[in-house]
Design brief:
This is RQC P-site tRNA stabilizing factor. This protein has 3 helices and 5 strands, in the order ααββββαβ. By secondary structure, it is of the alpha+beta class.
């Protein structure tokens, strides 16, 4: 599944266009490597995402083509969440 689509469906980022923009600015890594919006996400991958002054590290646990709001949180597991000062 494409990175931007995963971020939208899992509701980590609300809009796919915003997810694409964040990825293309070099703020997302998959397994320690810089990722583009078209990068492929697989189960078990670790994503590191920079949101302004916050960095999130998540592990992909499920992939779905679409989800309900309550099921979206099951698609990933938060490993770490840090504030950048």
């Amino acid at each position: 599944m494409r990175l931007d689509k995963f971020l939208k469906i899992s509701r980590i980022i609300k809009r796919r266009s915003v997810a694409k923009e964040v990825a293309d600015k070099g703020r997302i890594q998959i397994n320690g490597k810089l990722a583009k919006s078209s990068s492929t996400v697989k189960i078990g991958d670790v994503l590191t995402i920079q949101f302004g002054n916050k960095t999130m590290e998540i592990k992909v646990s499920e992939l779905h083509e679409s989800t309900k709001k309550e099921d979206a949180a099951n698609m990933y597991e938060i490993i770490a969440e840090n504030r950048n000062e």
